[in-house]
């Protein structure tokens, strides 16, 4: 198996697990960020957290791989 197939399989498993977790956690939660109190479904919070982590990981990889002068 080549690296592209392995990445595709791992990505599919992660998306499937994320879908199951989000589907099972739809109740409302209150999150306090600094002084703000936000009420939202736990599924939205999980998706938001996943998206932030994915973006930060991608940015870290992008800056780490860029050539330095």
TrEMBL record:
Q: Does the keyword Electron transport apply?
A: no
Q: Does the keyword Cell membrane apply?
A: yes
Record keywords, A-Z? Cell membrane, Membrane, Transmembrane, Transmembrane helix
| Transmembrane intervals | 7-26, 38-60
InterPro entries in the record: LapA_dom
Gene Ontology terms: cellular component: plasma membrane
**Which superkingdom?**
Bacteria
The record places domain Lipopolysaccharide assembly protein A at: 24-63
* Listed name of the protein: LapA family protein
The organism is Oceaniferula marina
């Amino acid at each position: 198996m080549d690296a592209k197939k392995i990445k595709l399989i791992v990505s599919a498993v992660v998306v499937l697990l994320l879908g199951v977790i989000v589907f099972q956690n739809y109740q409302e939660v209150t999150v306090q960020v600094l002084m703000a109190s936000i009420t939202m479904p736990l599924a939205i919070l999980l998706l938001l957290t996943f998206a932030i982590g994915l973006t930060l990981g991608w940015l870290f990889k992008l800056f780490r791989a860029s050539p330095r002068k």
